[in-house]
Amino acid sequence: MVELEAGEQVLHEIRKVGYETPERVKKALLGPSYIEKGTLKLTNSSLIFEGKKIQRRFKKISKISKKDTKVKLGGGYVQVDYKGSDGKEKSALFGASSMAFWSKGKATENLYNTLTHWLQSEKKEAQYMPRCPTCRQVATFVQQYNKWYCTRCQRYL
Asked: Between the CA of residue 50 and those of 19, 156, 157, what are the distances in Å?
């Protein structure tokens, strides 16, 4: 488990997220097969991926983009560009299974929208992400409907 830094707090968690590296995707025939699936935590200063074997912290994120797979079997993946501890630009790839979100076929789009909104909030230092009034979990923004959604209660706010 990745330890939170001083003053860092988890704003949102997304479960059943696959983690992959660009190097492995280049070798793959169909696109990401994912090294591991786990939970992606959005904090007020970084992204944290926690799987059973792999734990990674991603800081200094410069860009989030949506990518298609080579073969149109799924919804693609989300590429997160960040500056590594060595100062070089690096990328990490994330994908969501349809079970992780509420709408089949929209999982990657919803993951992309949530990460993009989080990055914009982080850059503004606004950190505005509303909480569900029922369970108090941070809601996920669904751009298609321009509404916030609670993945735990499975309802729009």
From this structure: 9, 27, 28
**Residue 28 φ/ψ region, left for φ over 0, alpha for ψ in the -120 to 50 degree band, beta for the rest:** beta
Are the C-beta atoms of 134 and 150 separated by less than 8 Å? yes
- The token duo for 14 is 């997304």
Tens digits of per-residue pLDDT, 54-98? 899 998 898 998 877 654 445 678 889 998 888 899 998 888 754
Sheet of 61-67: strand order equals: 55-58, 47-51, 36-43, 10-20, 89-96, 77-83, 61-67
Q: Which residues contact 106 (CB under 8 A, 6 or more apart)?
A: 75, 98, 144
25 pLDDT above the threshold of 90: no
pLDDT value at residue 31: 52
Boundaries of every domain in the chain: 10-128
Measured CA to CA, the distance from residue 72 to residue 75 in angstroms comes to 7
CATH architecture observed for domain 10-128 = Roll (2.30)
Q: How far apart are CA 134 and CA 142, in angstroms?
A: 19
